[in-house]
Amino acid sequence: MREPPHFLDEAPDEELKRLFEELIRASNTIELLVGVYRVVKPALIRALNQHLAQANPLSDYPTCRLLRLLLKDEEEMVVWGTQATTALTQAPEAAKIAHDWEKHLSWFLDAAGELREIFPMRIIFLPHVLALMALPILWTAFHGAISVFAIR
To answer: What are the φ and ψ backbone dihedral angles of 28, each rounded to 5 degrees?
Structure first.
């Protein structure tokens, strides 16, 4: 019980690992928000929806219930992220940065075959895997952003 399952400390797919390695290279807040809220979380929502659509509502009831709760949370986060990204991309230069970064990260996601193709049967573990993969990235990115704001 004190040891995490063996697969949670490793990326389940090399291409997905590359996506997150690229996401950590976001050079500013706009790129970070675009990566998380326009690329990664929408892909997670699509994967969860696909799994929910294919699940048996009777025999998979506990899984379906958890997926519906996860979907609600993820969709709310994407709404907030979209609003934040929209607020930061009013200037044409910022909008171009957002568009280019979204296109760039989408290429990595496409190379990974979308999230639902990576986890066809183990999709219920996907949020945990993504959370474990994303926490160091987000911590580093936000810690760096806080440091930048503190200096100014």
So the answer is: -160, 175
Contact 97, 28 (CB under 8 A): yes
Supply 141's token pair. 């990115």
- The number of C-alpha atoms within 13 Å of 49 and in the hemisphere containing its C-beta is 10
33-60 confidence digits (pLDDT tens)? 999 999 999 998 998 898 899 888 898 8
Supply the Cα-derived Rg of the chain in whole angstroms: 16
Opening angle at CA 136, ends 135 and 140, nearest 5: 115
Distance of CA 105 to the CA centre of its chain: 11
Where do the H-state alpha helices sit in the chain?
14-23, 29-34, 41-54, 61-88, 92-111, 114-118, 126-151
Handedness of CA 29, 34, 36, 37 (dihedral sign): positive
pTM listed for this prediction: 0.71
For residues 4 and 9, give the distance between their C-alpha atoms in angstroms, rounded to a whole number: 8
